[in-house]
Amino acid sequence: MASQLLHVTRTLSKLTLNTKCRVTNTLIKLERELPKQPLFNHASRNTNFFNKMPAEDLWKGITTVSNAGKKRGRGKTVSKKNIKDLNRGQIIGVGKANMLWPGLTAPVIRGKEIVEQQQLPEDPERQARLNQLRDQMGTHRHAKLSPIERGWSGAKMPGRSIGPPDPVGEDHFDGFDTKVLELKTVFNMKGNFGRKRRVSATVITGNKNGLVGFANGKGVEPRTAMRKAKNRSAQKLMHIKIFRNHTVYHDFFTQFAATKIYVWQKPEGYGLECHRAIKTICEVVGIKDLHAKVEGSTNVTYVMKAFLLGLVRQKTHQEIAEEKKLHLVEFTKETGCFPTVLASPAQCRKEDQLGKDEILDFTQYCFDGKVILKKKKYPPFYTKLKSYETYLKKQEKLRNKDKVKLDLIAQYGEIRSFLTEKYPECRPFRRAKKEEEQEAEA
């Protein structure tokens, strides 16, 4: 019946207008009588909601909230950790029907033989492994950092170590360490790409023996930016002079932009009392004892450049002695103010050759003629009260009691009286060790 209908429609164009109308009406009647089946049988396609949209959009519909909902405080507990990548662990050709597909999951030719499509044995534990992998998604937490590995503030990168620079050919940076000083997100507005986001990293590297270099690197990801900066800093190394392998050669003043830094040389065992960026730089350079005060801007980049500028401009004691043509003598409390000659010039000037306006104060000379204003320390307010006088009278009999105890322990190994040698019973009561051990066991 359908083939007859097609044949009639082809010959319809050859008929007159009246005949066409009659034939058309007849065709409409015949079409109503025909069963409603397609003339051509197409393969059916399942195009439902889950096949049309990608996984990201499907998860987004579940885990996100509309802008209106966000304004009302909804969706606070929803986060990306609830999203699970269901494609993770899935391998082509491995599943309920394990098949070997030449050219897709296996090579077409193996040796001299052509690989044929074949069925592989089933893996009963595959689904259990997939379920375990999916259960672990979203619950992973980073391992807790040890106190030594932490930076300036917890797990954030500034202040943390990222290891030595990558080797270049035969050059290996053994003994070097790199620390991050700054890691921030920067944006650049482009005409064709719009607002472009990148990560900027500032790092400093050194071998803890006077060699140091710093650099800045940018990248789309933090790892890329830090790697670029780390390898670039190894190409810009400079040597820093260290006095007695623990401190700077002399006090100095340095400045970069709006940052001013005053640095003082300190004896061994003093430690690093300074800005956290300066402390990180000193650890990389190899300086162990220092006191520094920052005035003005505390921008990390400015602080780093100002401090390194001061370290590079240091003069050795011999250079100072040759410049002034005078002996350089050190007086320190650690040596009982006993004079120690640090450097002597080739030709020393006499007293009548010294200028009247010449700077002879070593501290003032190191600070380029500047005099540091030291604010007067006023006594606390409570020292003027009558109650404080009463307190001093009551504490007079206990004055220096702790110091006396420490001196006795250091000299005799115990707290004893000056009459102990004459009267041995003049010492603190101590129980026998056997009694102490019995109590500990009990």
List the SSEs and their pairings.
Layout lengths: L1 H10 L5 H17 L15 H4 L2 H9 L3 H5 L27 E2 L8 E2 L2 E2 L3 E2 L6 H11 L40 E14 L3 E13 L4 E9 L2 H12 L4 E2 L12 E5 L2 E7 L6 E2 L2 H10 L4 E7 L3 H13 L4 H8 L3 E3 L9 E4 L18 H5 L19 H9 L6 H12 L20 H9 L1
Characterization of the model:
Keywords: Mitochondrion, Ribonucleoprotein, Ribosomal protein. InterPro entries: Ribosomal_Su5_D2-typ_SF (IPR020568), Ribosomal_uS5 (IPR000851), Ribosomal_uS5_C (IPR005324), Ribosomal_uS5_N (IPR013810), Ribosomal_uS5m_N (IPR048584), Ribsml_uS5_D2-typ_fold_subgr (IPR014721). By secondary structure, the chain is α+β, with helices and mostly antiparallel strands. Among the domains are: 252-349 and 358-366, Ribosomal Protein S5, domain 2, CATH 3.30.230; 389-442, no CATH class. Helices cover 30% and strands 17% of the residues. It has 14 helices and 14 strands. The protein has helices at residues 2-11, 17-33, 49-52, 55-63, 67-71, 126-136, 222-233, 276-285, 300-312, 317-324, 362-366, 386-394, 401-412, 433-441; strands spanning 99-100, 109-110, 113-114, 118-119, 177-190, 194-206, 211-219, 238-239, 252-256, 259-265, 272-273, 290-296, 328-330, 340-343. A 4-stranded antiparallel beta sheet has the order 5-6-7-8. A 4-stranded mixed beta sheet has the order 9-10-12-11. The chain has a two-stranded antiparallel ribbon with strand order 1-4. A hairpin with a 2-residue loop joins β2 and β3 (113-114). The chain is extended, with a radius of gyration of 42 Å. The termini are far apart.
